[in-house]
Batch of 3 targets.
Target 1
Amino acid sequence: MTKIVDVGGGKGSRYAKDFINEYLPDMQDLEFVRLDADPGTDPDILQDITRPIPKKHCGKYEVVYASHVIEHIAFWDSLAVVNNLLSLLRIGGYILIIVPNLEWACKQVLAGMCDLSVMAVLWGGQDNEWMYHKSGYTKTALSVMAKRLELTLMQLKSTPLYVFINEKETVASQHVMLARKDKENQPLRIEIKPRERIPIVL
Amino acid sequence: MRVLILGDIEQGKIFFEDDVEYANQGPFDCILLATHLQTVQRQHVVQVLSKLADELVDGGRIIATVPALEWACKEIAANLDNMGLAPYTALYGMSDVPYLCGFTMPWLRMSFEEAGLTVIEARSDFYTLKFLLEGDIEATERAQQHIIIGLWHKKDPAQAIDWMAENDKDS
């Protein structure tokens, strides 16, 4: 049994199983546990990831799957948040992080292709109070993050990201980072502000 | 001249003489959105500009300064291994107020025009951003911003109805 914690995926990330099968093909008999801050999704673990993970959940999982999650956190807080997520893993466990591709979005803007899919990659879909991006990541930023958290970087690549804008599918880009936790993560002395919710303007 | 400033109040010194009256109730001769428009949800930008324009006198102006999106993207794309703070904060901000959208100059101009404002000036310039780094070390970086000025003329009621019908149809 491979215990996987699906972080911020609400009622369950749509492509979690496909990504685990692709990036960790040796993992068999997958069991997903849903961790989310939104009680409306009825998660298995109700948890704000900007807060330390309670001890009872620490070191219990083989994989942390965080798809399109950390871009919703301010960049200054992201290191501490990912460090929180690492505490869920046992030693030798993996973290799979998927984020929109910041350099792709920048190149699109420079090419004059500043459409809604680019806006969605940069600042989120903005169709509900959770869907706002507060940070963006280049491959370099992700690899620096892995290094700072003393993770062993296994894979870091860009793949297509299918975005629906006005019911039409457009292809954007995302980064996928797979890293392994080889040593116990240390608490970081970074103060995280309580999660802000975006006010609705009108 | 009655002026409303939203955002960075300090920018008032750049755009206005001493004899202005800063007010929080319309009608205004000028509204300055000082590094503020990018904190509005992108789907509401035109509506916000339009509602603000309603608070202007006939012939009043809206001035907006925003981080230059194309400059930030150029800097990030050109310096992937050593991204500066200034281009990054141009996209996502650095204070407690997150940025919710961004503007290239054509996008900014289009937003003003869709809100019924006539663009009378649009330019870009560089300014200096100050950062407080770890250990209270102060650092500075140059960043580019767009400055746009839109002129507002009250529509006659018949035109206003047509304009609203057009917008309803689009939405």
Note: The beta strands of chain B are 2-7, 21-22, 28-34, 56-67, 118-133, 137-151.
Target 2
Amino acid sequence: MGEAEKLCDRVVTTELLIVGSEGAGGHAAIEAHKHGVDVLIVTKGKVGQCGASQMAGADFNVDGKTAKTLGFPGDDRDSPERFFEDLVREGLYLGNQKMVEKYVEYAPKAMKDIMDWGMRIYGYESVHTEAMARGITTAGTLWVKAIRKKVKELNIPVLLDTMVVDLLTSDGRIAGAVALDIKTGETILIKCKAVILATGGWHMAYPFTTGPYDLTGDGVAMAYRAGAELISMEMVQFCPITLVWPPKDRGSIILYIFSGLDIGTVVRLLNGKGERFMEKYDPKNLEQSTKEIVSIASELEVEAGRGGPHGGVYFSLKHLGAETIDFIIQAAKKRVKEELRDTRYETNTLLPELLEKCKTEDIEVGNAAHYMGGGIKVNEKTETTIPGLFAAGECSGGLWGAVRVASACTEAGVQGKIAGEVAPSYVESVEQAEINAEQVREILDRINKPLERTGGISPNELQKKMHEISGKKLGLIKEGKLLKEAVEELEKLLNDDVERLCVTSTKSKALNYEWIRALELRNMLTCLYLSARASLIREESRGEFYRRDYTHTDNDNWLKNIVMKRKNGEVEIGFEKPIITRIPLPSGKLTYQEAIGVATASLKRQ
Amino acid sequence: MDRKERIRVKCFRFDPSRDESPHYDTFEVPLNGPMSVQDCLLYIRENLDPSLAFFVNCRLGFCKRCLVRVNGESCFACMTEVKDDITVEPLRKDKVIRDLWSADT
């Protein structure tokens, strides 16, 4: 046994390590297993019961023409080419066109996989465009259930409740990783030839989010620390009409989903004074305006002191009267229970409960951090800039450009499948790299420090400080002055407070939340800091990125991606033109509203 | 039932690696509106005692992994509303990893 192997409590050897077990990671593992390599899944929770996939609506895209070949009604007006063009235009031309081509090409393949694994679907319909149906709907829970079943059937080894803390490299390529067993506190050295990161976004870095508890930007931050390039870190999508109240249902997007259904056209959004405020912002389309405009409008109302007591605006159905609301409740129940056999809490219990409430009161809703458009820079083969490191799903960046215009579930499946195809050939072509004991020692030291310290800052206290900054300065509407402050403050938290993190309540290593949070905080703060830096650099507004001090969409100066990389402990910043295959980049300067209007002409709210 | 403004949450505590036997700790939690059992536990962990171990993930009934016993009855912590004092225990006291989190069955 080498020196490095003696440093951790356990040593595990595999050929391909997959970090994350759900829509992207699980799919990658199943695909890679097919290609005959040794695969190990390491997940922070349990397969099918963690991460963001389970919470998805969910929908999967496929262009109308290809849909027909899969036995769906499809649409003759549609084609892969047309789908591709829509994605590029609606992403406001910032996306990597080679990646978009792969998305369109692999969407039906990934969808077919999941259906072959037994995912039940609800129907052929699209939740993203008005012009034509372009996919299927199902439930995130049904999606991850199919993955879990397949992973089990193939006997793919999984380390549950285990957090990968950092990657190990040797001469610039992947050599392994160091992980922590959350239940026991044991450290694990994982030796491998390649790693696929499928860790999702950094949702928990925001005080108000639709994401689950385990999404803390681990993959993005560890890739950055290992020297990988990140892209589009400023692109953070906020979801309007998310429940801010009551506390027990905070973060649920069920009313947002409801408002996107055909029946959703009856929804009114009111401010604290009872005014239908969309009359001011988009008198023609009102609540049916684009998602971006609705989000910004509601934020402006709250800012002007016309919000509710919990920082939101109101979802209202009162104008319909109790009888009509009752009719809607009955119809919803019938659809959910009888037609879809959907057993989820949100659709079965929460939605009827909220609609019932709407007879007498309005529901307070707001903009929650929902989807991270940026992340680890990958190419169309999911390769990062580090040999042996791949990234799939939400933790990757570069696909969408400035708006996540289509299904993130499809993104997870497509990139998971591609990573599962590509990584095995890389694995076959290299030998296991030597593990550098010094690197392992440094990572272990970082892991253990918060437990060893006797004084400093508690993870709870640092989390509050972080949320204070992200909540006030890194929300939907951004502004140079506040971004500058956020950058300076976050830099201080990263350089000072993270180095003083101290677990005080118990030194027990089993299920020590403070300890895990301490490690996660470093990751969340890294992502937030880089997101704030990129936001400050982008002096325009585009798609889901809105700056009140630069409200134009500036195609002449800003049709470029911001790329970040760690070099000698500093952030090295570069700019890259979007990769083009078929659609040339436009020029000129448009107002934000014009740009959104042009881009989303074929779209309803999404 | 009307909702109390403050409730007492009595929690089962046990660290098999350190404690000889389990004990209970009681915390006062303000109910700022309709809150779930999990909201109360999160309040305790973020404000009163960060060492309290319990499971939390999706918070909205998707992951179905937050099973605990409330006043003796098994339930999902995120989907169970609290209106009065409660006693929270792990699902399986014979399989406790720490506090309110027992091994999956």
Note: The mean pLDDT of chain A is 95.
Target 3
Amino acid sequence: MTTMDGLWTHLSGGALFWLTLTLVVYTVADRLSLLVQRNPLANPVLHSVWVIGTILVLSDTPYQTYFDGAYFIHFLLGPATVALALPLYENRRVVLRSLVPIVVALIVGSVTTIGSVIICAVLFDLPAMITISSLPKSATSGVAMGISQSVGGDASLTAIIVVATGIAGAVMATPLLNLLRITDRRARGFAVGLAAHGVGTARAFQVHPLTGTFAGVAMSLNGLMTAILVPLAASLIGG
Amino acid sequence: MVVGLAVVLLCQLVGEIFAYLTHLPIPAAVVGLVLLFGFFLVRDRWEWLPFSLRSEEIDKTCETLVQQMALLFVPAGVGIVQRLGILQANVLGVLAIIVVTTAISITVTAFTFRLVSRWFPAPAEGQE
């Protein structure tokens, strides 16, 4: 028994165990999602997060210990955002032809997102810390955490709300856009990428390469737009 | 793989330096994206680049990163275990922010895109 305890202490203190756990849980979640024909409810990020979260709580492991191990994966968020240049480059002609709708939808969408967060915060009388940390919720994690810090938010809280937003967007996008009878793949992709960043973009690439490309374009442009708009919004509400 | 990762990281690094020096509110990764886009443009026009920079590996690395992007959000998402208290105390408001504002955002963006693309129809193929 003491050998087992010693082994656990040895493994749970290092990166190897948590890194392996993250990859194994995600691989299983991704396979299950494939088994149910990529049903949005089987979102692999959603199920990986609660499974790993439960393991941390049950094993009484501090999040920081887990994160130190899983940091290698987290770090790749930046390079993955840079790598979106490839689908953008391959589809540059089709993107260029839609330049006007892209610019207008970007501005309207980004302002709507931030405005609706502020309205929600007032309606539900949320603490200022949650409101400020939620403002960059549609930007991709790495970008949003940086913005949050620069306006006095809680970067960890931002990361959670950003990932939860991404999951919610990825889960609801297909049924919602079908309900709204939006059939244009460009519009569908752009909307999900703007609202649900990388998680939404990953979902969009599962549906169709063109949808994914427009999602990627929206995600990178909205990272930029959010970085410009959130400091303005924060100064408005923070006084 | 190595040359691909080196090029991608180099773009991000230059983006980081740019963002630090200019103090512009532009995320480093987005600057990196623009640089890598420029790199692809240059690569497909100039033959004189050294072979390793014309290698297919760069495309393959980017493809892998984009395809596996969802996985990369897992470590940050698990952070929820750290903030359960504050989230539970404001559960309705937080759920509204996560679900309702995201639905509004998708709806408004999709309708705006469709409306404007009807006003400004895309030029036909081959007219670029």
Note: Chain B has two domains: 1-67, 73-128.
